[in-house]
Each structure stands twice: as structure tokens, then as C-alpha cells.
Amino acid sequence: MSSETRPWGAFHVLDEQPGFKVKRITVKPGGRLSLQSHKHRAEHWTVVEGIATVTVGETVTTLTRAQSADIPKGTIHRLENHHSETVELIEVQFGDYLGEDDITRYDDIYNRT
Fold first, then answer.
1. Stated pTM of the model
2. CA angle 107–109–110, rounded 5-degree value
3. Dihedral of the CA atoms 60, 56, 45, 4 (nearest 10)?
4. pLDDT tens across 11-63, in order?
5. Facing residues of 26 across strands?
6. How far apart are CA 51 and CA 104, in angstroms?
7. Could you tell me which of 58, 62, 53 has the C-alpha nearest to residue 33?
8. 3-state SS class at 11
9. All domains of the chain, ordered by start, with CATH?
10. In the chain, what is the greatest distance between 2 CA atoms, to the nearest angstrom?
11. 98-107: pLDDT as tens digits
């Protein structure tokens, strides 16, 4: 399976089948994913290491090991790491299209469009 480096950390695809994809995501200290939404997929995030700040819609929560968040299709969301240790999470994507280009970005500290 594939791995990709991003300005905030990296991800590794663990499994991909029609209708779902599973990733292990690493967010380095100070890393912040873009505020984004997806037209074609929903996501479920489970933290396995570290402390994550998660925005889903208007709700901002802090998640620690074994805690999770559901991100419905079309919902604006973000994951941030405000701490000195790396955040690791498992992301499960569900949908008819799971391509990396299914991202609408609203805010991105790395100036990606």
C-alpha cells in the first residue's frame, strides 16, 4: 500500500477496497491539517497515540488514546496537534469515491489550494 508525506506529517494506506479505505495518519507536533470537507466520503478517526484537537462542524474537542470522531460527508473538519508528542490515528473512509483530490480546503497554514 502507499505512503505519502505532507507538511503536517504523513499517512500510510493500510487497506483499500471498494467503498472504504483505512489509513494510519501521523501528525507531528504543531501540525495542522487544513480545514476541509469532502463531497464523496465520510470519515471515522480513532486516536491511537497523543492528544488531538478535532473540529467537526462547529464543535471542537480534544481526543486522546482510544477516543474517536465521526465526520459525516460534506462536514467541515480539521485535526490539529498542539502538543509536543506526535499524534497517531487510524482513519477509515467510507464512500463511492476515495481519491485524494476529494478535498475542498477552507483554511490551510501551508498555503495549499
1. 0.92
2. 115
3. -100
4. 999 999 999 999 999 999 999 999 999 999 999 999 999 999 999 999 999 99
5. 10, 88
6. 25
7. 53
8. strand
9. 3-98 (2.60.120.10)
10. 37
11. 998 999 999 8
